[in-house]
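[step 3/7] fold_predict: job queued, chain A
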Amino acid sequence: MGITHIRAGIANPSRPSKITSIEFLVDTGAVFSIVPASILRKLGIRPHSSRTFTLADGTEITRRIGAAIFVLGKEKAASPVIFGKKGDSPLLGTISLESLGLMLDPLKRVLRPLPMVLGRVS
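[step 4/7] structure written:
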C-alpha cells in the first residue's frame, strides 16, 4: 500500500464561494477529515461539538467538530470536520470522500467515482 495526497478545497457552508485549498493525506481508515483549526477559523467555521478519539497507541484525545464544504474538481459536498491541533496532519476521511461521490482505488492510489446505489422500496 502507498500513500496518497491530494489538493482539495474547503469552505464555510454559509460562505461557499470563499475556498481555501490545502494538501490532504487520503486516509480511508479515518472516518472524519481533519483540517487545521487556524484554517477553519479563518473561514469562519465554528465547532458545534467535541468528540474523544483513540489513537493507534491507545492514547485518547479530544477534538472539536464542525461542518465544512469540501471541494474536489467539480464536486462539492458537506461533511463533518475535525479542528486539527498542532501536530495533527490534514486528512481526508471516508465520510468526506463518500459525500463527494469518490473512493480511493487501492491499486492505483487515485480517486475514482464511487458507484452510487439507491435502494428502492416497492
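[step 5/7] annotate
The first strand starts at residue 5 and ends at 12.
The longest helix spans residues 37-42.
exit 0
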